[in-house]
Amino acid sequence: MTTPAQYKLCPECRAEYTLAAMRCADCGVDLVHAHELADLDQELAAFPPVSELQCVRVAPMPWIQALSAALQQAGVTHRVERARSADAPEGQRTGVFGDVPLFGLYVRSEDVASTREIDGAIAGQILPEEAPVLVAGEEDACPACGAAVGSDASECPDCGLRFG
Question: Which of 24, 45, 69, 124 is the least crowded, having the fewest Cβ atoms under 10 Å away?
Fold first, then answer.
């Protein structure tokens, strides 16, 4: 085994890499030095577990990384963990990503509204330009794809999401 100064770690799966490596081959996340991971572990230990948080987004790692970076900049503490499509907030379509590994981003309940606003901005950067973006609090937009829907609609005309 090498000394901590001679390798990097994946913060998700804890795989070891050489100092020249930048991203985890399995998780797609940026690698960190061992001491950085220890600091992160201490910070996360003080943050509530996922069972006490609300999931705001389940998506592939690039989306989660972009959202996480924006939340860090905004000072919103959050947790990212591997997730299944079933963990996604109600109405969020995750099947469109195929077999890509999904990750969930979780926040305290008091941070949900601001996190959804930031997530809407991220969606605008990640989704194709022709895809409408859901604006937080917009009542006449599909919660899954953001398409305009009538207030009496029972199904989204674009993605087929059925409204209860």
Answer: 45
pLDDT tens digits, 133-145: 444 344 566 666 6
Compute the distance between CA of residue 124 and CA of residue 110 in angstroms, rounded to an integer. 24
Pairing of strands 78-83, 102-107: antiparallel
Residue 155: phi and psi, rounded to 5, are -150, 145
**SS3 assignment, position 64:** helix
Under DSSP, the state recorded for 53 is: S
Q: Residue 131, SS3?
A: coil
Q: Which CATH number fits domain 48-126: 3.40.50, 2.40.30, 3.30.70, 3.90.1570?
A: 3.30.70
Distance between CA atoms of 58 and 39, rounded to whole angstroms?
A: 25
Residue 24: CB atoms within 10 Å: 20
Domain ranges of the chain: 1-46, 48-126, 138-164
